[in-house]
Amino acid sequence: MEKSLNFEENLTRNIWQNLELAQVEPRQLSPLVLAYIGDSIYDLVIRTYLISLGNMPVNKINRHACRLVKAETQSKLIGILEEQLTENELSVYKRGRNAKSYTSAKNATIGDYRRATGFEALMGYLYLDGQYDRLTKLVHTGLEAIGEWEHHRMEKK
């Protein structure tokens, strides 16, 4: 009996299959390429989380999303999560953090920007490696640690 796929696995499989894309091995991609896709994946996770809070003006959602996806917040998240990463995940993060980027952050310190790049590389790696549960668990743990879940429980009351 074939195991049924969850939403994320179905979505990802459909993207690759329906567009007839060649599979990639995440370990063979540069850390900046991993960060490139990881930035989008993390943004999608955050946007999904925010719309789950209920219908609200888009500008309010966008302001909140900007706070959660900015380099400073990503730097905080990886600081919280670093101790919980596996050896492989830590290696991916460090490769991303130490990668020579030719762009710089507009509103972040160099340190925050580098740590955020490492965080995004990790998100991209987990996504491309099909580790969706791990990706969302890490994001949830980080957001919970910075008080994000509690903030919205209080806001809903």
Automatic annotation (TrEMBL):
Belongs to the MrnC RNase family. Its cofactor is Mg(2+). CDD domains: RIBOc. It comes from the Bacteria. Residues 17-151 form the RNase III domain. Involved in correct processing of both the 5' and 3' ends of 23S rRNA precursor. Processes 30S rRNA precursor transcript even in absence of ribonuclease 3 (Rnc); Rnc processes 30S rRNA into smaller rRNA precursors. InterPro entries: Mini3_fam (IPR008226), RNase_III_dom (IPR000999), RNase_III_sf (IPR036389). It is found in: Cytoplasm. The active site is at D39. Keywords: Cytoplasm, Endonuclease, Hydrolase, Magnesium, Nuclease, Ribosome biogenesis, RNA-binding, rRNA processing, rRNA-binding. This is Mini-ribonuclease 3.
